[in-house]
Amino acid sequence: MESKPLTGKALLAVRNSDASVIAYEGSVRSSKTHTSILQWIGYARTGPPGTLLMVGRTERTIRQNVIDPMTELLGRARCRYVAGQGVLHLMGRRILVVGANDEAAVTKIQGLTLSGAYVDEAATIPESFFEMLHTRLSVDGAKLFLTSNPASPAHWLKKKWLDRARLWIDRDGKFHHNSDGLDLHRVTFVLDDNPHLPAGYIQRVKNSYTGLFYRRYILAEWVAAEGSCYDMFDPEKHVAPSPLILHWPAVGVDHGTKNPFSAVLLGIGVDGRLHITSEYRWDSSVQRRQKTDVEYSADVAQWLDNYIAPGGTEATKGVSPEKIVVDPSASNFIAQLWNDGWSPVKADNAVLDGIRLVSSLLHRDLLRIDPSCTGLIEEFPSYCWDDKAALKGVDKPLKIADHGLDAARYALKTTEWTWRDEIGLPAAA
């Protein structure tokens, strides 16, 4: 990470950061994180003595999004993370690092007295944790820095904090003052606020998003999730026979006993696209018989052993995917796979991130579904956002007819960094 001079919106943000809570929100790659990192480094040097804290949805995300860039900028002598201890040594300060992906995380900070805190992706943090964190900042002169992408307009972070800011610099650079507001300064960044990105890269990132995710992650709008999750899915374009496959990154599995069991096979084609080439599916309500985990494991093995890849023959049948990615809640099935000689991987089940990734792939025509995957294809049109959850500020799809889609999302999201460069999908964080 190279430190570039702050200009434009970033410079405005730093010059107007005399509140106790500094909130940088907005689109991806817009320089909000870079700006907050520089301020956090400065605060570690000059802020009041006492305990500092850094928070992310998980320790892995805070490390990836913030700590690694700081280490690249400063070098390990001035920025050293001790993962096993959850401690960062930054500019001579010892900083605690915690993940807060559920309500139970609040116990990690109870009883602390803090002189400063940094929260990455604040909209993904439980409200109870954030509220507790704010009460822990009791040292005179303590500050809280946070970054966030937009979410639902009913989200607690927007309604209870950002909308009550004493000062808001909006996405157009206009100043909004609220003398009765919280001691909070809010700055909204958009992609074009980052002067150090090439124009071609900016356009590629913009082209990676569509619909809801374009409005949130490019236009920096807090908009509700409504309608179809995959409204860009077009059977005329996205359903097509699979070409020759170069390699097989994964099988994705959504386990079901009473619900359908679905497995999908993911390949990368000679056309530079991802392809769901085949599916195994067992719906006990239709077949009127439930299967055991032993049977499912044997069925998946038989399905892969008998699969004839595009361009193959009976003599060359059988594929060996690099990973078998399984619904993380299916612990008994995962154990059965281990017993049967597999090396299963628990799926990355960050639902919104997974839906965003699949949406981007469909939008850029980088994901195709083989016509043989009838169960998966039938699920796309009915996969919709939960309107009742949206009223509470929560983004989640209705849990109806989603088993093949979950399996595909598991395979794609969990193996993302193994194929992203290969198909030319730009990184966007």
Could you characterize the architecture of this molecule?
By secondary structure, this protein is α/β, with parallel strands linked by helices. The chain folds into two domains: 8-207, 3-Layer(aba) Sandwich (Rossmann fold), CATH 3.40.50; 235-423, 2-Layer Sandwich (Nucleotidyltransferase, domain 5), CATH 3.30.420.280. 34% of the residues lie in helices and 21% in strands. The chain is built from 16 helices and 16 strands. It has helices at 8-15, 32-46, 59-74, 127-136, 156-160, 199-207, 211-217, 235-238, 284-287, 293-306, 331-339, 351-363, 374-379, 387-391, 403-414, 416-423, and strands at 21-26, 51-56, 79-82, 87-90, 93-99, 114-119, 143-148, 165-169, 175-177, 182-189, 245-254, 261-269, 274-282, 323-326, 345-346, 367-369. The strands form two sheets. The protein has a ten-stranded mixed β-sheet with strand order 3-4-5-2-6-7-1-10-8-9, sandwiched between helices. Strands 15-14-11-12-13-16 form a six-stranded mixed β-sheet. Strand 4 (87-90) and strand 5 form a beta hairpin. Helix 10 crosses helix 11 and helix 12 (351-363) crosses helix 15. The relative contact order is 0.12. The model has no long low-confidence stretch (mean pLDDT 93).
